[in-house]
Amino acid sequence: MYRVSPFVRRFANALLLGMGLATLWVNLSPDSYYDALEWRLFDLELPVWLAPLPISLTPMLIVSHVLMPFFVAFIGKELWEALVLTRGAMAGRRALAPLAGILGGALGAIVVWVLVGAVIETAEEASFALGWQVPVGGDVVLAYFVARAVFGAGHPALHVSLLLTIGLDILGLLLTGLTDPQAALRLVWLVLPALAVLTVWRLVARDPGPGASEARRRRATALWPYGVAGLVSWAGVAASGLPPELGFLPIITVIPHADRSFGVFAEAEEFLHDPLNRLAHLFVKPLALVLFLFGLTRGGIDLGAFAPTTLTLLAALWLGKPLGLLAGVLLATRVFGAGLPGALRRREVGLLALIAGMGFTVPALSLEITLPGGGMAEAVRLGLALSLLAGPVAIVLARLIRR
Fold this sequence. Notes:
CATH architecture: Up-down Bundle
Strand content: under 5%
CATH class: Mainly Alpha
Distance between the termini: 26 Å
């Protein structure tokens, strides 16, 4: 495995800076903070068959639904390469243990959320199992930030941590979109992403072959056709009622890529010049700004919002998800004979499961969709901030284990 590129740490720093400023702002002047987030730049008058509800462009909406899809595509690219490339971390049977861990972690978080919420939830707006999608996702960059402190640079556990959190994030977004009771799913719009994928593959991405002209070869390596296809795909996903954050993922599957994997966010990828890695290189610096803006618009933590919902979330993230992840990995290794991901030891997998109990980015997106606004949502947001304490606990526990 190659070393993970340092830009992931810059992502984490940008996100934490945005969250810190937002928390300071919302506690000193909550009215001005929420007014800034919900400032209506202009309203979009779209036909009912395209958007049944009126759309008002606000800073929060632009950051979440227009800018964050680039970040989701950026991490989705790594998961796709891990699945399909030679020596990919999840190619063939190597996928069994990580996939089992992802599914087990999601199931554990959901079960604990439902059970604990049924016992202690007191919010007036709550109903049975409301918001169970929230604890499924995690936080890719903050989990990596902690994993690097726990295992050190260059350790294979860093790649495994990234794979697990990326898988949980994408699964969390999918479940949020497919099960949102307030959304009117219009899945016929998914024809647009399908057409975009087929068209760009047929005209541009398909291997030109040894007898192709020089113009055809240059067209296969150009980036603009994939940008146009990505916009069409994003529009189709958004119109379908699924989270727009998933809009660029279908196009990733047809963009020409390297023929082997160097690991998740590997530093060696900076020297690759295939179209997929060139696109990723273009987004590295802008995405740091996107994550700062996301922290600023979604990371305002009301320190007085503690409620039983906060405890429900922490139980799901700190108990349900780690135990489910561990159970899934052990089931894959003992029943199906899969090796531990990254050839790690069980105690290292246990530390990764604890780190996976941190959650912010995708849960912050999910709570806006699956929970009613007000006290319940703010209690969950506080719980997401508190869940980051799993990071220092993992660091201390790792040092005790080494002693």
